[in-house]
Amino acid sequence: MALNIPGLVSVSVFFTLTLATGIWASWKSRKDQQNRNPTEMAMVGGRNINVFLGLFTATATWVGGAYIESTAEIVYLPSKGLLWVQAPLGFALSLAIGGFFFVNPMRSKNYMTVMDPLQETYGNMMGTLLFIPPLLGEVFWFAAILASLGATMRVILDIGGSLAITISACTVILYTLQGGLYSVAYTDVIQMIFITLSLWICIPFALVNSATESIYYTATHQSYQDPWIGKIEKHYLGRWLDDFFYLVLGSIPWQTYFQRVLSAASTGQARLTSYLSGLGCFAMAIPSVLIGAVAASTDWNQTSYGLPSPFERGESAMILPLVLQHLCPAYISITGLGAIAAAAMSSADSALLSTGSMFAHNIYRKILRKKASETEVLWAMRTSMLVFGAGAAGLAFYSSSVYDLWFLSGELVYALLFPQLCCALFAPSTNTYGSAAGFLVGLLLRLLAGEPALSIPPVILYPACSLVNGTYSQLFPFKTFTMLLTLGTILAVSYLAKALFQRNLLPRSWDVCNIMGGTSILIPLQQVEKQESSLSPLLSPLMIYLKSSLRNKEAFSSSKENM
């Protein structure tokens, strides 16, 4: 296959346009930064992002390369079909739930990151532990996006995947470092417009191609493969529900989401942005569904691709760019290639900014350098983005394992972070003991359930667990079960620990997490003297001892103040 010059030019133009937009946005943010907190400008846009800009950047965060390509792939796969495409509805419901329940408590205290309420409720050290799953998730997500883009460029443009990964990573890192959220938001506008126009321009040509059967007929009738509408067999219902709840609830506790709603100019605008972006995510799946349906309705022997089909060659993950390349005219398909690059970068920059913001604000400022200046925190954020971005680019060369690690990290965020965030916001009586116990229980249960993609055998065999070709498959909704058990553990252990200390069943000296607040139980001296006359003479020795202790305590405090 020869180098695809028109496609290369299209992608190059898009990369240049994106970089120029990001640099312009960084210049604009510096111009608007006068008399404003520089780190707040970089992390949450000075809390001044309007609804229009917020809608585009929130939608683009979820509508990434994996979103549009995996949606088309699932529709195309004979064993799946449209009924297994859960992300559009799942993300839409997730954004609606986030806007209705989570926006107000997060904005009411002017939080900067999703980790703030966790550190506030459970302490900095527990917050550091809870920081690990989302950090790994964002880094692996960035790496997976780059790996997907590199594989696509290798197949379609016939250029080295490593070259595509390097150029993409450098572009994203450069404009994100320059302008923070402003650069990410304004480039998201360009990327979303590019994705929408490019895909919709390609679809009519793919639908009327002579090698393609009517998608209305193939939706319910066997043609070149099983109907693309798909079906959900009864024994797979538990897994389907588990994956759906994972998408709906597990998509909430991510900094990429809260960075958008915390950057809005008001709580009302934040909620509106969340609701509208949910509709945007759902709408943006329509082109991918149509392309997947076209792929399932195509006689590939009549195309330049030939036989065997993409499914038989193991290239189902590339079905969207393959449809654009082989079912559309060359001058049309090059616009679709730009759309794939745009979708990849729209999520990559969000993941990079998210990791940098959490590290700089929650780790560097609150733990490592509590007296750091705003400029120092800003440079810590930029340095961490450079390090995490370079690390993710390195991991992208191991594409197969990166995807598996990202899936596992995302499940850990669902099982561990979502119940912790719910308790921190809606059950403030929970404490560090409950948080630590919940983290340990959730982590053990998830790892003991195994992970076939990483060759981790299950220790816990849940109901309906089956052995297929030497690999165990958990059909029980264990991810949601683990999340609920983590939630119950946090609540139960928090209540138990507090009750044990309050009733003096455990000595206060054992309260290493200081959940009782470290408040003194001594009564003020004046109140003791006032009430002494009303007490029984039998208690006089006790009162004398108490007064003596109080005077010694006050004398000690006075001496400390005079030193």
Automatic annotation (TrEMBL):
Signal peptide: none annotated. Coiled coil: none annotated. Pfam families: SSF. The keyword DNA-binding does not apply. GO terms for cellular component: presynaptic membrane. One of its GO terms (molecular function) is choline:sodium symporter activity. It is a multi-pass membrane protein. GO terms for biological process: acetylcholine biosynthetic process. It catalyses: choline(out) + n Na(+)(out) = choline(in) + n Na(+)(in). Keywords: Glycoprotein, Ion transport, Membrane, Neurotransmitter biosynthesis, Sodium, Sodium transport, Symport, Transmembrane, Transmembrane helix, Transport. It is found in: Presynaptic cell membrane. Its main location: membrane. Homooligomerizes at cell surface. Interacts with SEC14L1; may regulate SLC5A7. Belongs to the sodium:solute symporter (SSF) (TC 2.A.21) family. High-affinity Na(+)-coupled choline transmembrane symporter. Functions as an electrogenic, voltage-dependent transporter with variable charge/choline stoichiometry. Choline uptake and choline-induced current is also Cl(-)-dependent where Cl(-) is likely a regulatory ion rather than cotransported ion. Plays a critical role in acetylcholine (ACh) synthesis by taking up the substrate choline from the synaptic cleft into the presynaptic nerve terminals after neurotransmitter release. This is High affinity choline transporter 1. It comes from Corvus moneduloides (New Caledonian crow). The gene is LOC116439523.
